[in-house]
Design goal:
It contains eight helices and no strands. The longest helix has 31 residues.
Length: 217
């Protein structure tokens, strides 16, 4: 299993899939967290509905509602940073498991559990991707040994461009959430979506050019 994972980690497709999966999951969490941090209701569904009653109960909890938002924000931001994505995935995992169980237990319809289930699967994928960093957790204290310094550095995955793009994604996500909640304008949302797309494509183009330059040098 480990050898299969290591072989997949050498393929450009899986490298890009991992990087952008971190962005996508991180964006979803950060965007959803801000409304909780600001102490606002997540939905306008009436409390006569099970979903509305559930969210209203969490909202009325006060500080716990803010705590959920902060937890989601931190996990999402760490994921988008790429540099600290391993910590982000580890922090995100118990949160998304909890969300998945909630959406399958309460009647959220058929679509929401599918989305949260895919996010859970994506998080498991990210944890498996960094499996070497977790190996020592399953070893006895006197048997702990992990030396990755002799392995060649994956300069594509560690390219600082991805971290810079992650910071831009985070800033744009925060701004788009604030503007969307303030002005309720579809134009603003579309503009922010286009900016996110441009940043994502730009990061891809720059890293591919730098990758080609390294091969040619």
């Amino acid at each position: 299993m480990a050898s299969l994972i290591d072989s997949l980690k050498k393929l450009l497709f899986f490298k890009l899939a991992t990087i952008y999966l971190r962005y996508i999951i991180g964006f979803a969490f950060v965007f959803a967290s801000i409304i909780k941090i600001r102490g606002e209701r997540f939905t306008t569904i009436p409390v006569t509905e099970p979903i509305g009653f559930f969210f209203e109960a969490m909202y009325q909890s006060g500080f716990y509602w803010n705590f959920l938002g902060v937890s989601q924000f931190v996990a999402g931001a760490l994921l988008m940073s790429q540099r600290f994505s391993t910590i982000g995935a580890a922090a995100f995992f118990p949160i998304i498991v909890n969300i998945f169980m909630i959406t399958t237990s309460v009647n959220f319809g058929s679509g929401t559990p599918v989305i949260t289930g895919l996010m859970l699967m994506g998080t498991i994928y990210l944890l498996v991707w960094d499996y070497k960093k977790y190996k020592i957790l399953f070893q006895k204290d006197h048997n702990i040994h992990l030396d990755l310094t002799k392995e060649p550095e994956d300069r594509f995955m560690t390219d600082p461009v991805w971290t810079i793009a992650g910071v831009l994604f985070l800033m744009i996500t925060i701004v788009s959430n604030v503007l969307a909640s303030t002005y309720q304008s579809m134009t603003i949302q579309m503009t922010m979506a286009i900016i996110l797309l441009v940043v994502g494509i730009g990061a891809f183009v720059i890293t591919m050019v730098r990758r080609k330059q390294r091969f040619n040098s």
